[in-house]
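Retry 2 of 3 after timeout on previous attempt. Resubmitting structure tokens to design endpoint.
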């Protein structure tokens, strides 16, 4: 298997739905700790409406704290043109644009159905490129929707076709509510390859039903080269009852390393960060396991 790049998403997806508000200084420290552990691509923040996502209300301030670090390849999550403009002005290197595959979640999350979100992405694509931003489009709820239920692979591919027409630099699939299984991963990736054999693929998994790591390994075995993960395993989707968060960076790194796949991540360092950020947001113990059990061999 090829080497895998991990994108650290704790500063955005990890913190976004936590009840405890984290200071700008601590968010910047979280980004720097990820860089210290050898991770270069970091989803620093989301450019969303502060009333809807109060944890991300200081998006520009966080970017101002970290954007000059030469180690950082900064990613800003955007939902619309306003978000893209803010990401450009804040100095992000990349924008991840969200397109929700299911209309039920699309409307509740962004106030627009899937077709409108695809059209919005297509309208933004050229401007993002002109501004020098690399772009990823993430197909959210690609494995299931809390409102519409099952999401068929045909639906995923239909939406992906429209997204690919906009020419993203990378395409991502997200199991937003943590319902996916490896068979779905393999089918979706194979289907996407029939649409574009060369587009770099990224995957984002939640461990809500304890399948996130199995899905990550299936993605790697299917040819996905980039995986999202969150230090400590913090975060989760507000639409997923009992959500236990993203797959943990340290646990994913351990799984891949022991499977012969290199990530370049210092596992002891990122495990310490996972423990630190989990304590900061009020977890009695980090959801991640590596910080508890330690690596092997010791």
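Retry 2 succeeded. Sequence:
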């Amino acid at each position: 298997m090829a080497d895998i790049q991990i994108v650290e998403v704790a500063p955005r997806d990890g913190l976004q739905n936590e009840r405890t508000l984290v200071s700008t200084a601590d968010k910047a420290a979280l980004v720097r700790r990820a860089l210290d552990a050898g991770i270069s691509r970091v989803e620093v923040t989301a450019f969303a409406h502060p009333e809807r996502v109060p944890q991300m209300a200081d998006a520009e301030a966080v970017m101002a704290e970290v954007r000059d670090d030469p180690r950082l390849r900064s990613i800003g999550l955007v939902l619309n043109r306003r978000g893209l403009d803010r990401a450009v002005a804040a100095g992000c290197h990349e924008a991840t644009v969200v397109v929700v595959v299911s209309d039920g979640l699309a409307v509740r999350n962004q106030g627009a159905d899937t077709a409108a979100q695809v059209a919005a992405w297509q309208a933004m694509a050229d401007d993002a490129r002109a501004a020098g931003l690399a772009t990823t489009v993430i197909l959210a709820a690609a494995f299931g929707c809390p409102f519409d239920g099952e999401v068929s692979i045909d639906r995923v591919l239909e939406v992906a076709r429209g997204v690919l027409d906009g020419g993203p630099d990378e395409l991502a699939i997200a199991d937003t509510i943590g319902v996916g299984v490896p068979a779905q991963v393999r089918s979706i990736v194979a289907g996407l390859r029939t649409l574009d054999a060369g587009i770099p693929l990224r995957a984002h998994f939640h461990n809500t039903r304890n399948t996130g790591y199995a899905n990550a390994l299936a993605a790697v075995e299917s040819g996905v080269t980039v995986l999202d993960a969150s230090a400590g395993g913090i975060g989760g989707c507000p639409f997923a009852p009992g959500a236990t968060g993203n797959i943990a960076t340290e646990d994913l790194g351990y799984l891949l390393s022991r499977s012969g796949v290199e990530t370049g991540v210092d596992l002891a360092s990122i495990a310490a960060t996972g423990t630190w950020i989990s304590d900061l947001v009020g977890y009695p113990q980090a959801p991640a396991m590596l910080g508890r059990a330690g690596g092997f061999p010791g």
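Attempt log closed. The beta strands are 5-8, 41-47, 73-78, 94-100, 134-140, 170-175, 201-205, 226-229.
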